[in-house]
Amino acid sequence: MAIARLASIVLLSLAAYQATAGVTRQVKCPSGHFTTNEKCCQLFPVVDLLQHELFHGSKCEKGAHHALRLSFHDAIGFSLNGGKGGGADGSILIFHDVEEKYHANGGVAEIVRQQMPVFKKTNLTGGDLYDPSTKISSTFVKLPRSSVHLAAAVGTSNCPGSPRLEFWLGRPAPAAAAPDKTIPEPTDSVTDILNRFAEAGLSPREAVALLASHTMADQDRVDPTVEGTPFDSTVERFDSQFFLEVLLNGTMYPGHGSHEGEALSAIKGEMRLKSDFLMSQDPRTACFWQAMINNQKYMMAEFKAAMARMQVLGQDVSTLTDCSDVVPVPRVFNGPIKYPPSFSEKDIVIACAETPFPSLSTQPGPPPTVSPV
Ligand code: HEM
Hints:
8 strands; Peroxidase, domain 1; mainly alpha; two-stranded antiparallel ribbon; single chain; globular; binds protoporphyrin IX containing FE
């Protein structure tokens, strides 16, 4: 009797300690993983499948780039004023036959073709993944509509230096395809880009934060003759090299001549988007841009926070379940970053006068050439 009373006192004290110390209760899943909500258990095998089949063994390469870009193109189809789509609702997968025809979605058809068979293999059931009330052809009913955002979080985690992104489960079925002209294009002006982001509820600071994604990115469509040209010289890493290299005085194009949406780049084999360069120079965004350089922790925190908002645009978060703990923990990169060989501060097109430009050293060696991804 005394022992039972003692045991219950110990348990109560433990519960009180956990509550006051903010210790979160963990559930053990059949797979052996731990999570804070048992609804998330079903996702661990999905994460393994994505890592194996989409990201070729947890790699930071094309598959991961595709997944991150797709989550943006899905989510930004939204306006606080209505009439621009359901936001981060998976419509880019479910209504891919409509959305992939939009000009800004060049390459999306190919990405969807790669991702779709993998998502179908998940065979998940439950509110998030199977909704018989949708008017979607039976081929697509098993498609997890959150999968586009889970894949982005998992793919990004494969790039050393990235933050561990959030993932929220439980989106209702998308009602319709997002309309055309919601996705910014590299030919757009900064005003058009910022207006589009603002309409979706995202600030200029968040727009710059989201462009950290271009540190793990390359192009196929802006100049199709040089497919896979990366946007920075360390495309395999989530570092701030992209923000530095966009500011280097541009002198060349990676292919033959300029193309729509392309700006002169400083490094052989590297593509610079016109929109990225304009964002780096505009008074509304230039200091946010410069603040990222060699500031790994700040960049990670900014990107994580902006992605957390972007990936639930248009969703009622109170109905979603936080399954962020299914996202793998990324490998660390602490820097410092350096100027590519032969470059220094004299090559920088400085656009933010408010703060001194960060002091960086230069990598040794001859002028660099960046290889395609
Ligand atoms: C001003 C806004 C943006 C513009 C104009 C823009 C434009 C582009 C363009 C033109 C490409 C090359 C596509 C190709 O030719 O294959 C690209 C690639 C990419 N973008 Fe953006 N982007 C913007 C914002 C974002 C955001 C907010 C994200 C994610 C949060 C993102 C993630 C990516 C990724 C990961 C790639 C590489 C895709 C791949 O390799 O398939 N972009 N972007």
